[in-house]
Each structure stands twice: as structure tokens, then as C-alpha cells.
Amino acid sequence: MWHLTATGATPAPVLQELLNHLADGDGWDTAVGLAVDGKSVTAATKPLVEAGWKHTVDGRFIRWTNPSQDAGVQFDVFAAQKPSSALATWTIWAGPSVDQPTWALHASPHTPASTLADLATELAHGTGTRHHGPRSSAPRQPPPANAKLPAAAPTGPGLPARRLR
């Protein structure tokens, strides 16, 4: 069995791609109990390689990042060898970094390579990297002192009430 989790900010097109893939019946091609091998890693990341994404190795992690380095896929070699572990083997992300993503998908070792490849294709073509950062928490600045405010409608006793249209 395999599992995949998504953060709340994961873009709808990425989730739609996942649902379409599963509805097509293509998401069931990994045999349970087998370790992730080089063939499945190559198949899962082929769309990224074809799109010219940079490939790096950092300790136990193999990462593919887009040219602007604001999206990527990370493969955890250690987690892949421990299929019963709760560690995510695959992380598909977009944002400032893999450690501080705007959104992310985390997948288990038995997630089918075809499912990961479809998600990687979606990411590589840019739909998944379109993310909106959090709204600014900075307080709104008051208008400049010389700014003109709109005139208020006169009111008070002695003026007839007007109906707005």
C-alpha cells in the first residue's frame, strides 16, 4: 500500500492531476514489499530531467530543482530503504526551499513511479509552481498627510433626506 499527503496550499491543478491519474487507473503499478530501485526513480523523475532541471545529491537526499530553484522534487534514499518508516520518501514542493515550502506533497516509498511522473510533469510545466505567498502581515500605512479625502455628503437637521439611487 502507498500513501500521499498534501499541504493545504497545494494548487488545485496539481491535485487535479493526481485525481485524474488515479481515475485513469494508472496509479497502481508498484508492487508492495519491493524497495524503490533506480529504475523507478528514473521513471518518476524523467519529466524533470527532460525539462532541464538541476540534479544534486546532498547526503541522503537526491534533489531535482527548476532553474529558478523555487520548485523541486526530493528523494530520500534512507526513507526508501525503510518502507515501514513514517518518513516521506518523496517530497514534491514549491516555494522558497524544500525546508520551507509554500506547498508540498509527501509520498511513501511504494507510491507508483507513474503517479510521481505525472505530478512531476505538472510541476515541470509550471502549473504547480504558480503559488501565492502569504498575505503581507505588515500593517497598512496611513495615507500621506497631503492626501485629499472625498468630501462627505452634508447631513444634519434642516436638510431634506435624500434617497440614494
From TrEMBL:
Segments of this protein annotated with the region Disordered: 125-165
Extent of Low complexity compositional bias: 146-165
Pfam family, one: SPDY
Ranges where the DUF317 domain occurs: 1-28, 65-128
Name the UniProt record assigns to this protein: DUF317 domain-containing protein
